[in-house]
Design brief:
Number of domains: 1
Shape: globular
Radius of gyration: 18 Å
Number of helices: 7
CATH superfamily: NAD(P)-binding Rossmann-like Domain
CATH architecture: 3-Layer(aba) Sandwich
Strand order of the largest sheet: 1-11-13-9-8-5-2-3-4
Largest sheet: 9 strands, mixed
CATH topology: Rossmann fold
Number of strands: 13
Strand content: 15-25%
Length: about 325
Amino acid sequence: MDPSKHSRCSAFSMSMMSTTTPKVVPKGSAAKPYEKQKVAVFGAGGYLGGCIYGFLQRAGSLYGTGISGVGGSPRAVVATSAGSVSLNGILSKNFILAQADESFVKLTNMTIVDAIQSRLNGFDAAILGTRFTLEPRPVTLGSYEKSPNDKTMEFYMERPRIATVKGIDDPNYSLQLFNNILQACKSEGLRHLVVIETDSEFDTDTVAGDKYLALLEEVGVPYTYIRPVGSFENLKEYTYAKGVQSTLKITQPTSLEEFQSGSGTLYREDFAAVCVQALLSLDWSDNRVLQVEPVGSLGQEIAGRAIPQREWCMNSDSLQELLAVAS
């Protein structure tokens, strides 16, 4: 990564702060909450993608976030009905009987850029991973099949919801998907991308950011590139009412040499909330790289002080305070 391309991103490191911090002024979608932004999530059948979608869905139902909850937004882009079923399993459990019908979930031929672009018509931003778990599936009848025996690959952001999915890892296919999505986003004129580096969940010692950042610079769509520092795990019996459960540290590297790896436990649910808060809080016209690292459990003085029905994610104000430093 060329540091000169990220001169606007000064290095910083913070942990979640107490409730005495002055009110933060957002610079992302929440800066103009009346201008509802439409957001698409690629690979939303994966557990991480499903949690991101669920938080976006909740954000779209509340005033003040600037996220649209109508007109097919948020949109889940998957390859087959298996992705839709997986997403709805996550929503019904983690987001208390929420669901996404066919107006919000679009089955898409991910091998064709024009097909992806058509799913982004009228949308403003997208969230995607760098590497996907893939599952060979028949093309869902009535979608984009040319014959009853057509096959495709369902793609899950990072990992599927359940371990019984016989997923495979094909880094070359994932890279082609990633590039196809970027080209479609560029052609459709999206304003911002949130990109999650998921390679470390497949190759534990990898530092893969350089090739993805090069592709992002090439397409020219402003981006927030987020790296997990640690190993992903799921929280047990999680619902959105529990909200953020960890104290997090965020750093903003200015070169590849500052990219970190770690062995701590980073909960997917907390990381998903960071991705959504980045859209709400950070200026969409800038490029930035963020690293998210767990440093402990959330303090009791912060946890559980709001009413869940009035929040898109409990304790998300702590994330807002963290990300304000980057805006």
